[in-house]
Amino acid sequence: MCIKHDMAILEDIQSVIFDLDGTLVDSMWLWHDIDVEFLGLRGLALPDTYQRDIEGMSFTETAAYTKELFQLPESVEELKEIWNRMAIGKYTYEVPFKPGAEAFLQYCKEQGITVGIATSNSRDLVEAVAGSLHFQDYIQEIVTACEVDRGKPAPDVYLEAASRLQAQPGHCLVFEDVPMGILAGKNAGMRVCAVEDAFSQAQQEEKRKLADYYISDFYEVFAGL
Questions:
Q1: Looking at 170-179, 185-194, 214-223, which range is the least confident one?
Q2: pLDDT recorded at residue 3
Q3: What is the pLDDT of residues 26-64, one digit of tens each?
Q4: d(Cα 162, Cα 170) in Å, to the nearest integer?
Q5: ∠ CA 118-20-35 to the nearest 5 degrees?
Q6: How many whole angstroms separate alpha carbon 40 and alpha carbon 218?
Q7: pTM for this one?
Q8: Most buried of 31, 48, 70, 162 (most Cβ within 10 A)?
């Protein structure tokens, strides 16, 4: 369902909770290159299904999965630190908001809608892009999947974000860009809007089926007002 010129999506919504990568910010493009470089330095090739296989996993779960898959000598914590070092410059200087995202955040602020982030990414990288894009002006809570028991599609990270925002799940709206994230929001009892992203273009039909709404950009959420 496209929501252009339709504000029903925000009816009875007290809090909006965003996934980060590919949803609130345009960052998915950088991970393919990092994965290729990381594995290439170890004489390994990136499997075609790797990104889909890790979809929704927390940063810690991804490190554990990757360590086991490739039998890497580094510890889980060492892998996370390596990935943080490889990505932090890009998150600080090269990752922008998705189209219309900042304008929508400003709209939520004006309307008194509280805002959170529930991400599978690491705290270090979230804080890097948050500092660059001044999230503190709009976002009250940031929760990473490493802080809860299970990554997406389990509802844990979204339920934790709602709890910190003091919002009931039924009055929360989730924005997500991939199927596992959409399922996490639905499993949390929240309404979910799928966001178009080039990285998940091949999954567009699946995303439309799983989500309550679908948008090409955030301007569609409040178009016509």
A1: 214-223
A2: 41
A3: 999 999 999 999 999 999 999 999 999 999 999 999 999
A4: 10
A5: 115
A6: 36
A7: 0.93
A8: 162
CA of 78: how far to CAs of 35, 67, 84, 149, in Å? 15, 10, 10, 20
pLDDT in tens, 105-122: 999 999 999 999 999 999
| Predicted pLDDT at 7 | 59
Rg (CA), the chain: 17
Write out the chain in H/E/C secondary structure. Answer: CECCCCHHHHCCCCEEEECCECCCECCHHHHHHHHHHHHHCCCCCCCCCHHHHCCCCCHHHHHHHHHHHHCCCCCHHHHHHHHHHHHHHHHHHCCCECCCHHHHHHHHHHHCCEEEEEECCCHHHHHHHHHHHCHHHCCCEEEEHHHCCCCCCCCHHHHHHHHHHCCCHHHEEEEECCHHHHHHHHHCCCEEEEECCHHHHHHHHHHHHHCCEEECCHHHHHCCC
How far is it, in rounded angstroms, from Cα 77 to Cα 93? 25
Q: Judge whether 189 and 35 are in contact, CB under 8 Å.
A: no
Kindly report, residue by residue over 190-219, the tens digit of the pLDDT.
999 999 999 999 999 999 999 999 999 999
For 166, what's the count of Cα atoms within 13 Å in the CB-facing half-sphere?
A: 2
Q: What is the 3-class SS of 131-186, one letter each residue?
A: HHHCHHHCCCEEEEHHHCCCCCCCCHHHHHHHHHHCCCHHHEEEEECCHHHHHHHH
Helix axes 179-187, 156-165, angle to 10 degrees: 60
Q: Do residues 22 and 178 make contact, with C-beta atoms less than 8 angstroms apart? A: yes
